[in-house]
Amino acid sequence: MLAAGLLLTTVTVGARPASACDECKASKAGTKLGDMAILGNGTVRSWVTLDEAGKPTALGVTLSETALTGLPAKMQRMGEMEKTLSLPKTVALAPFDHITLDWNPQGHEPSGVYDLPHFDIHFYTVSRDVRSRITATGQNVSTAQKQPDARFIPAGYILPPIPPVPYMGAHWIDPKSPEFNKQPFTYTFLYGTYNGRQAFWEPMITKAFLETNPDLTVPVAQPAAYETAGYYPTRYSVKYDAARKEYTIALEGLTYRGGAGTATRVKTAANHRKAAPRRK
């Protein structure tokens, strides 16, 4: 379980006092906290977890248990119940810029798929200023729907025939997901683009699924290449902490990827087994 509520601490390593040890280094491991906002009868907060070297390993949001109560049962428009959360000010985490959590009490299109009460968590890789220009009307529709190089979208993901969303962009779906194969929507993962570039990574989680107190970790489909250098997730998680009475939704396994179309691939045990033997 990610310690989303812990403050970053400094730990000195080594048998001798730090003042007498040239090689002793302070650990930078811990979780740094970002913005907090009121959500329902509780709160939601952003955070980033660092390893001992100070490199990011995860980022996410934590909802108090009470945040699932007191939520509006009906809204007039999408985005009416959006909470915008900055990342911790002392953490630079390219390509991610900020996070939003949207409560959709009646769901949204497509009808019969995502029209259940749920949360959309957008991990944006574009700035708030760029988002403010996404009107998804008039000529901006074609701009929002401009497709990126296929290398930058995971294989199998498609752009469905639905209009782009204001302040968000175009949403890419995996047609192999359970909700598109006669199973109810509980959780899923989408990708977002705007003007031919990546705009966000998005877990979508139903309120009903959160109320089951899950302990879920799911691999994130990887593109063949990354347009912008930075730390990208290899999985996402949805978890409940009974002791702290809170939920976390996180992008985990952050791994540095080169940008400008540098092809990368997550190494697995299967990859290693297929590797050719070294010459003697």
Notable traits:
single chain, disordered N terminus, 6-stranded antiparallel sheet
Describe this structure in words.
The protein has 280 residues and is mainly β. The protein has one domain. Helix content is 7%, strand content 36%. The chain is built from four helices and 18 strands. The strands form five sheets. Strands 3-4-5-16-15-12 form a six-stranded antiparallel β-sheet, with no helix packed on it. A six-stranded antiparallel β-sheet has the order 6-7-8-11-10-9. The longest helix is centred in the C-terminal third of the chain and has 6 residues, at 269-274. The chain is globular. The N and C termini lie far apart (45 Å). The model is unreliable at 1-20 and 262-280 (pLDDT under 50).
Cα-based radius of gyration, to the nearest Å: 20 Å
What profile does the largest beta sheet have? 6 strands, antiparallel
Would you identify the regions where 5 or more consecutive residues have pLDDT less than 50? 1-20, 262-280
What shape does the CA trace take?
Answer: globular
Strand content: 35-45%
- Strand line-up of the largest beta sheet: 3-4-5-16-15-12
Q: Helical content, roughly?
A: under 10%
Task: For the record, give the distance between the C-alpha atoms at the N and C termini, rounded to a whole number.
Answer: 45 Å
* Mean pLDDT over the residues: 87
Whole-number count of domains: 1
| Helix/strand order | EEEEEEEEHHEEEHEEEEEEEH
The number of distinct β-strands equals 18
Q: Count helical runs.
A: 4
Structural class based on helices, strands and sheet pairing? mainly beta
